[in-house]
Amino acid sequence: MYDRLIKVAVLLFVPIFLFAQEYRYSKIEKIPDFSFAPYVFTGLDIMEQLDMAPLQGKKIAVLCNQTSVNRNGIHLLDILASNGIKVKTLFAPEFGLFGSGNKRLKLFTKEKNIDPTTGAKIIDLFGKHIYPPEESLIGIDLILVDIQDTGVRYSTFITTITKIMETASKKNIPILILDRPNPLRGDVIDGPVVRPAYQSFEGYHLVPIRHGFTIGEFILMVNEMGWAKNLARVDLTVIPIVNWKRDYWFNETGLPWVKPAPDIFDLETLLAFSGMALFKGTNLNVGHGTDKPYLRVGAPWLSGQHLMEKLNALSLSGVRFSVVQYKPLNRQGMKFIPLHLNEFCNGIEIEITDRNEFDPLGTATAIIITTKYLYPREFQWAPNDYIDRLYGSNVLRIFVAQKKPADYLPPLWFHDVMRFSEFRKRFLIY
User: Fold this and answer.
1) CATH for 410
2) What is the mean pLDDT of the chain?
3) Do both 211 and 278 map to the same domain?
4) Are 336 and 261 in contact (CB under 8 A)?
C-alpha cells in the first residue's frame, strides 16, 4: 500500500533529480527525490517506481541470484515477467541462480538450464564458462545486473560482472546495474590491497578485503578506470539506492536478508567471513560442516583451551572466545567437503560482542599466527599458496615464517587503507 502511495506522490509532485555527478564512460540515472520515504530503496525498488521504463521494449540478459528481490521479497524475475520484459538469457554467478534450498528450485522442469518463469536459458558463469558465450548475447539490447554483493573482496560476484563487461564491450552492449547497499557499511575499509602478481578470481581488482563500496560504485570505478581486461569499457548506467547512509549495517536498511552464499547465514556470519575466510588457506576447519561457519576454528590436533588462553592475552576488541568441540558433517547444499570431515575437532568459538569494535581481519590473522606458533609442525598452509590469493600477497606467509607478533601485521595494511580511501572518493555515489 505504501509503495503505491509513493508512486502516486512521485507522479503528483515536480521531481527533484538527484545524483548529477558526471563521469566519462558511465552515468548515474537521474531519479526523482524519494527522501520523503521512511526507508531504503534498492535500485530494483527504484526501477519499479519508474515503471521499468529503462527496460521497456528491450530484449535483455540478466545476471541475478536469490538475493535479487525487492523490499517486499518479490524476485526480480517475477517482476520482469509481470511487466512483460523479455528476458532471453540468465547468467548465474557462483552458487547458482537461486542457491541451494531455495523454493524456486522446485519449479524447474527436467530442463535444468531453462528458467520456468521467463523461459530464458540459464548459463553458469562459475563453471564451464567464466565469460558469456557469444551466442548468449545474440539479439541482446541490454544486460541487467541485480545482485547483493557481500562487501568483501573474496566474493566472486564483482569478478563475474567484470567478465561480463569484458564481453559486452566487444559487442557494444550496454549494462544497467541496480545498486544495493554494502551490507557491512560503506564507511569501513580494511585489509591489504591485492598486489598485481596475486590477482585471482577472489581478488580480480586492486582493492582491500573490505572495500566499503556498493556494487554500483565498485563497477563504476572499474569502468571509469579501465580495470577490465584490455581496458574494456561499457556504456554503464547505475540505478542508485535511495535513503541509504554509509554508516548503515544491513539490518538498519529495513531490507529483507537473503543469504548471499550458502554458508553465510546472517549478518554476523558475513562480518566474521570478512576475516575468517582466510582460514580457507590453511589446514584448519573454520566451522564448515556445522551451523557456525566462520565462527569456529578447530582441528583434531588442536587444544582449544590452550589457544583460547593465548588469544585472551591479546585483548582483542569486540570479541570473546570459548572452547568448543565439534564434528564437521557433510551438510545439505555444500559444494565442497569440509576439512576434517566426520572427525572431532577441538578449537575455539568466536562470539562478536560489539560489531563496531570487532576487527575481523585483525582477529583472523591473530588466530592464524598464534596457531602456527603453538603447532609449528601440525599447522600447514593450503596447497599452491592459496592463502596468498586470499590475502592479496605473500606478506602473511612471510610474516608468519619470520615469527613476528600478531599485532605487527595490521599496521602494514593500514597504509593500503589510507591510500585507497583517498583514491575511491571520486567514485562514491552516496
Assistant:
1) 3.90.1150.140
2) 92
3) no
4) no
